Structure formats: C-alpha cells, structure tokens
Amino acid sequence: MTSRDGYQWTEKSGLVQGVPSIGVIHPPSNIGQKQEQYDVIVVGAGYCGLTAARDAALSGLKVLLLEGRDRIGGRSWSSNIEGYPFEMGGTWVSWGQPHVWREISRYNMRQELELSRNMSHEEEDKLMQSALEKFVNVDGNLGKTVMPFPHDEFHNPEVKQFDKLSVADRMVQIKNQLSPDEYTAVLSFVMLCSASTPEKTSFYEFLHWWALCNFSYEYLVKYKFRGGQSSFAIKFFQEAVETGRLSYAFNSPVASITQNQQRVEVRTRAGDVYHAARLISAVPLNVLNDITFSPPLAQGKKTAATTGHVNKCVKVHAECRGSELRSWTGVNYPNGQLPYALRDGTTPNGNPHVVAFGADHNRLTPDKDIEVTKQALQDLTKMELERVVFHNWADDEFAKGAWFFSPPGLVTESLDDMRARQGNIFFASSDWAVGWRSFIDGAIEEGTRAAFNVIQDLKARKGSSPIKSVL
Amino acid sequence: MTSRDGYQWTEKSGLVQGVPSIGVIHPPSNIGQKQEQYDVIVVGAGYCGLTAARDAALSGLKVLLLEGRDRIGGRSWSSNIEGYPFEMGGTWVSWGQPHVWREISRYNMRQELELSRNMSHEEEDKLMQSALEKFVNVDGNLGKTVMPFPHDEFHNPEVKQFDKLSVADRMVQIKNQLSPDEYTAVLSFVMLCSASTPEKTSFYEFLHWWALCNFSYEYLVKYKFRGGQSSFAIKFFQEAVETGRLSYAFNSPVASITQNQQRVEVRTRAGDVYHAARLISAVPLNVLNDITFSPPLAQGKKTAATTGHVNKCVKVHAECRGSELRSWTGVNYPNGQLPYALRDGTTPNGNPHVVAFGADHNRLTPDKDIEVTKQALQDLTKMELERVVFHNWADDEFAKGAWFFSPPGLVTESLDDMRARQGNIFFASSDWAVGWRSFIDGAIEEGTRAAFNVIQDLKARKGSSPIKSVL
C-alpha cells in the first residue's frame, strides 16, 4: 500500500507525493456503522498509541484507536522501495533501551537487526568522542556526577542549571578548548540530534542523551531493523487486532475532545463522534494545541505545547549511482542545509544509500523545491542522484517537527505538567518520557504507563478486576 | 511472615532457621477443594514463573501457580530484619537490563533504587578494570570483536571457541601479563561471578557477562531496591492475583509432570493432582531432574540438567559492631572460604553491613557449622559480629545452586536444548535466557517468552483469540 506521507523523486517520475509502506492499514477502519461504548479511546497510532492500545486490549479492555494518518508508526516508519527499506523517521534501537528491547525480545526479532553503519570510522570517531567529551564535561567527570542516573534525571538536582544554557551558550564556554575540526564536529553532531539551531537547543537535553548512552559517543551508533521500522510497529498492531477487542479508524484526525466526570467524547474533523470511559492522548507536543479540549488543557500543559519542542528535521535519503561513497560521513554546519549525513546501506541496484538530516538552520522544504534539496545534497559531496526520498517532518501536519528536542527551560519547568493526567484523559508521548525521551523506547515507555494507569483506574472504579474472561 | 528459607545467628539466639520476608504468601493457597481445568499451570514462583503467570493471567488465561517454597522470588528474595533488608539472593538491577527495567518503570519504582555500594574505591576499581581487561582481551578489542552483540551471543561464531576454555585455562594464558595483585583480583572477582572453581567455570560465560556490561567493570556495580527484592517481586504476584484468574498453592513441591496430546497433569509430592492445557516449567536447571516427566525429558535437556550449572554460592551477611569498615572490599582467593566480600549498607543500629560470597572452592555449610563461617568472616578482616544472616544456595533443595554459571561447553552445546519446548510443556528459566542469563532480567525475559508462546499456541488451537472479556 502507498501512504500519503513522504515523497519520492527520480529523474523519470519527477517529484511524487506518497511512498509505499507496510504500515498502511487497509481497509482503514473496522468500525462499520455500529455505535459502541469503549473502555478507552487511544488517539494516535505511533509506537506510544500502539503500545497503549495493545496493552489495553490484551488486558481485556474494549479499545478504539483513532489516527489521522493512513498508517501506523507516527514519527517512525519505513518505506520499502524496490526491495529496500528507507527509514522515514525514527530508526535506531539497541539493547540499552529497555522498553524497545523488551518488545524486540518478546516478538523474537533480535536477529532481525543490523548495524546502521557499515563501517567504523576510526579517526572520525576519535575526533567526535574527544570533542563531545569536552562539550559535556561540566563536572570533570564527563557528566556522570551531575547526571548519575539518566532514568531519574533530576536525581542530582544540580543538573537543572544546565537547562538554562543553550548549546550556543555552552559552545561559548568551551570554544577555546576546541580545535576548528572539533568545533564543527560538535555543532554538526548536536544539530543532528536536535535538528534545530544552537541558540534554540537546550544543552541539558543533550547531557541527558549522553548519559542515556552510557556517557559515550560509541553508544549513539545503534542498530536498525533489516526489514524497516514498520516491520516492528506492525507486530503491535497485529497483536492488538488479534485480541478481537481493537476497533480502529485511520484517516480520522481528531478535532475535539470533551470530557465530563462520566465519559470522554471525541469528535473527528469529519464529524464522527465516539465515546469511552477513558482516553489516552498519544498526540505529539507540537500538535496538542490543534485539538480543542473541553474543559481546556491545564495551563501548564498548554504553555508547554505553545512553547513546543525545537526539532525541525527534514530527513532526506539519496540513492546515488556509482560507488565512491564506500564509507563516508559528511558534516556541514553552519554553511550547508544538511548539517549531517552518512553513508548507510546499499540498495538492491548496488547503489550507495546516503541519509542526510536537515535542521531548523537554513531549513529545506523539498516538497516545495526539490531542486534546492538536490543541490544541498551536492553541497555535501559530489553525487549522481538516482533517487531522493524524504519526509519533511517540520511541515507535517500531525507532528510539526520530528523527535522531541527541548529548548532551554522546557524540561525542567514543564516535564511534570506534560506528564500529568487531566480528569479521564491520560497524556502519553515519547516527548515527555523519563528515560529515552524522543526515542521509540520512550514512546513504548509512555504507552506502557498509560495503559497500566487506565487499567488500574478502571479496576478501582469497579472495585475489582475490570477483566473477566474465559477461553 | 517468616520463611523457612535462610538462617540467622546472633549471640543471643544462636543459629535459627528461617527469616522474615514480605515475600511469604499467607494463606499459602487460594484453591480450596474445587477441581478445575486450567489453561496453564506454572511451576515455580521465581521472577520467571511470576512473570509468566502474571502475563498469562493478564491476557485472560486461567492460571495455576505451584511453588515448593512458602514464598515468591525463587533465587531472589529479601529478609527484612529489624527494619533492614538483607538480600538473600539476586540483588542488582540496572537500566541496562531491558526486561527488569521495563518492569521497574511500569511499576513506577525507578525512584526506589539505591547504589549497592556507598562509595567508589578508585584505586581498587582501576586495578580491577585493568586486570579484567587483560583477562577478556582475546581479540585485541576487549571482546567487542568476538562478542559484538551480547543479546545474540553467537553473532560472531568465532566466540564459541572460548567455551572450550575454563577460567583456569585462561589464567594460564595470561599469567605473565598480570601482577600478583591483578592475579588475585581477577580470580576473586570471577569466583564472585561463578561461585565455583576456576577449573569448573567457563571462560566464555564470563565474556558474555562482560559484553552485557558494555565491556566495562564499571557496569557490574549495580543498583538495588531500597525496600529489598521482595518489594519488587510482590508487585508481579499482586497484579496477577488482582486479575481474578490466578489460583496458587505454595508449599507444593511438584513430584511428576505427565502429558498427552490433550493436556498436562501435575502431581505434587503431597499427592494433589492438577490439569491444564499447557504447562510452563520455571524450574531451575539443577533441579529439573528431580521431577519425573512422562514422557521423559528429551535427551538434550536431560543431559544439560545432569551436567548442571556450577554456581554453589553461599551468601553470607554480617552485621558488625563498630565502624572501622567504612568503605571496604575484601578479596580472599584461594586461601579463604569467602573469596569476595564488600561493605554494603548501614543497619538502623548504625552498624556496618558486610555481604560475603562463598563459592565451591572450600565450600562453607553455615547451616551445619556456623562457627566455621564466623571464622571465615574473621579471616576476611577483623570484625565484631552482631548478626549473621545467610542462605546456603548450594544445599537448597529447590535450587541446588544459586544463579546460573556454566561449565565449559554447556552453553554452546546445550542452549537450544534447554530452551526447547516439549509437547505442551514450555521450559522457561533465567538459566537459559539469551540476554542477561543468570540475572533477574533473564528470568523476566524467559517468563515473558513463555507466556507469549503459550498464548499464541492456545490462540492457534482455538482459531481465534483465546480471550474474550468484558468489563
């Protein structure tokens, strides 16, 4: 099936909207005309919503999953084009990520992973490691003293001061310690992580990533699925469907969510109305204000959503003829429009595949001007373009940005607000996970939390187990 | 409640069998006289069995949990004595352990952890790191080349050759590279890990641990629960009970397991008989042959169980008067009977708490001769003993050893055999986990696998979801 999401360009076809994905669900709904009262409605079918819907359905709840797109996966999905999986969003996983690994292990997919880079780049890795160590070394201990416990990030409250600093502020502090190559390496790499600008990016959030990666650049190189991200996401969806308790409707963007003490009502943009005892909003931070909540979102939540996260990534894949790019990483900040790029795999045609990351600085809009993007790729290194595939996350109406990366102040001021329940609505998103926030792992962490809390809540309401079942 | 397991000695009481634990379940059974047909019987209420029983019950299956002991937790449990939790078995957890961390996160317990050592021991840690690096450095890359992917341990099949080596063999290879202090450090530490002798311990298995710990001694220092292990295990049990679908009987050692194509029959030593469609054996490797299986265990499984793992740990806690032991680690191999000991916490009386680990070399039997054990503690360092608390795992009838550690050859030859299903019986244990084998994480990994497979299997049998439920 072909999703509306993503674009592809070849010499022959020109720019075409939509790419094929096994994550597209057809038919898009299994609801029919019947009116039902659900136990829980889950809004959003990314990993967070999929996990919440699956866990709730497995536990015996009657679940409705609503999704604006035509596919599962949210900000992580893959397009399979001529036998090759292009990762359109979140990609990397590892056994150091507890929630995602539990699922990979449970679905017996641990042997379906491959390294996301073919080769190590020893000198480059050494340069990057030494540069990043200077960047994070605020405590003479590579950050281990200020953030000893990344899954309880404020364990040492001293760390909060670093959320007052932007990456630009931090660069000023250390610029005399860095060689010109190190300076470029740090900035390009951090802009790869935040896909924003140094001024808008919180230094604290990078410290958190660093601690999660065991305080080493080495663990930022991760594994990816041989069959693409959608081959993983579909497992969650299928398992939920197989319970017989999952109703779903894709192509169903939600317009409004209204609650009273008894139930929650959801109205889609098309005017369909659904009811449930509880609702899990797995809607990303940057589009939370696009839904009308009644009563309105709590002030803290609304403020956080208005601030938003800063990641404006445009992810661009290039399939190039010829094989000069055997092993290669390109950094190109601040002059280029794609600050970071790397040689990834090899397509079935034997062509090198390069993946490049655009950021908020000099932002590309390839859907509007593909020629500028093709030139930006050429600015990285000379390549003969066979195919360009991309997802412009910055302008995606259901995300308005890619993975979460915070501006200064947002996490220390608003994390609790973003995580808070409001009446019968539970808010879940990787954007406010406490562990691997921004990552697929954080999405699963949050989906797990939401389903667990809804089940406990309904159990308390009934005074006993909500779930009675027989074979 | 007081468990029959464990022993305590004080000057006043002398040696007393049994220590208090919140893991003791009372009343020990909720079955009553009714005869029921269960979907699945789970034998063993350690973390593996608890996870399997919980997941199966959550998914709507009717579950019977049978356990020989009077408590949950198996080889991981804690005794709370005068307000202080003594860890009687498995203790350490970390966010680098995916299955355990998913549960800690899900039960919202991430802020209930504390470091298992109060202080770092810089010089000692440096000595240990350098000595262990020489020990594992078979590939000039600290083991990263031969075991790049510890959760798919045979990814590089070259690694299998190291399962032909014992630790003693490896020590011969490197003895000229080690200082006398390094030599003692390595052997004491590896005997802490295997609780056996260098001759009986596989070098390969230590390589696997090392890789799981990100190739660093640093990550072997882990976190533990402030409230003790049993405060974690009880969450699994309570959640399973709350489904209303868990029947259980403690003090019910299983004598025989008989299966035909339709069902499985379990007979306890007391003569009680139970039936189910499927059975999950969460029985440890070293006692698997103590149950009579009909038809008998497959040859590969039987052989592995006859070989057994080599860990014969006797875990000994000492509460000592006075505070000289502010920060201390003792290594004492091969002369002492407790090759490794460390200062852990401080009891509510303000006394230092030392935890010591006995191994198969010069094995202690403190339940038979407490005076010898008290002397072995004194041999580590002069201490005034206020209290001794211990669990002799080597002689424990339901474990016959502590956490899994393999002799040469066992893992490479028998891992698949140990993991294999046999008819309607699924075998699950940390002893044959593929990730953190031997750890609580591996137990949860295996319990998750077993429940998932049983549910899939029953679903396939029925041709649809096994679970129909309503609020």
From TrEMBL, chains A, B:
Q: Tell me the keywords, alphabetical order.
A: FAD, Flavoprotein, Oxidoreductase
Q: Which InterPro entries match?
A: Amino_oxidase (IPR002937), FAD/NAD-bd_sf (IPR036188), Flavin_amine_oxidase (IPR001613), Flavin_MAO (IPR050703)
Q: Which PANTHER family match?
A: AMINE OXIDASE, AMINE OXIDASE [FLAVIN-CONTAINING] B
Family of this protein: Belongs to the flavin monoamine oxidase family.
Give binding positions for FAD: 254
Q: Tell me which residues bind substrate.
A: 357
Pfam families of this UniProt entry? Answer: Amino_oxidase
SUPFAM superfamilies membership = FAD/NAD(P)-binding domain
Q: Name one GO molecular function term.
A: monoamine oxidase activity
Q: What class of enzyme is it?
A: oxidoreductase
Q: Which part of the chain is the Amine oxidase domain?
A: 48-454
What name does the UniProt record give this protein? Amine oxidase
This protein's superkingdom? Eukaryota
**Organism placement in taxonomy:** Eukaryota, Fungi, Dikarya, Ascomycota, Pezizomycotina
